[in-house]
Design a protein that fits this description.
Radius of gyration: 15 Å
Largest sheet: 8 strands, mixed
Number of strands: 8
Distance between the termini: 41 Å
Helix content: 25-40%
Length: 166
């Protein structure tokens, strides 16, 4: 069931990960849904931030710009189940597939936002993400890819870095 958080409408989403049940959410802007659905920002977490709550600031920025934002709890955290079987990397791909299947989302206007180790996971499994849907753009925060890896990405790539990033 949807619930309001300030000016944002949030839906909890439960989905099958790789041999584990996962939980996430999709946050929608307060603006009326476009005919083709909201553009999507899909968050690909870093290794240290395992729960969706760590991405509240990204969700606020995305929804204020008119995007739906999908994020989830990694296995063993938040409302997600835990399992020694399966792959956390494949969980990320299943989360992407789940986000793209939501009827309120325009899958043709999906952006993948990857943070730190999430940039490495995106690079490693890029072909699998593209098989589901090529993103319109990539946002790399705390990028861990080298120049050769970045220039091979066909989508527009945006970087967000700070003075303390390596």
């Amino acid at each position: 069931k949807p619930y309001e958080q300030g000016s944002v409408l949030t839906h909890n989403v439960n989905f099958a990960g790789d041999q584990v049940q996962l939980a996430g959410q999709i946050d929608y802007p307060s603006a009326p849904i476009p005919l083709s659905g909201y553009p999507l920002i899909f968050i690909l977490q870093n290794a240290g931030c395992t729960g969706r709550g760590g991405y509240d600031s990204y969700a606020r920025m995305g929804t204020s710009a008119g995007y739906a934002v999908f994020r989830w709890d990694k296995r063993g955290t938040g409302a997600s189940g835990s399992s020694g079987n399966g792959s956390a990397e494949m969980d990320a791909l299943k989360a992407y597939k789940t986000a793209l299947k939501l009827s309120s989302v325009d899958r043709q206007r999906a952006i993948i936002l990857a943070q730190s180790e999430g940039t490495l996971l995106l690079h490693k499994h890029y072909d699998l993400f593209v098989q589901e849907q090529s993103p319109r753009a990539l946002i790399l925060i705390g990028n861990m890819l080298n120049e050769d890896q970045i220039v091979k990405l066909p989508e527009p790539v945006h970087f967000i870095t700070g003075d303390e990033d390596w």
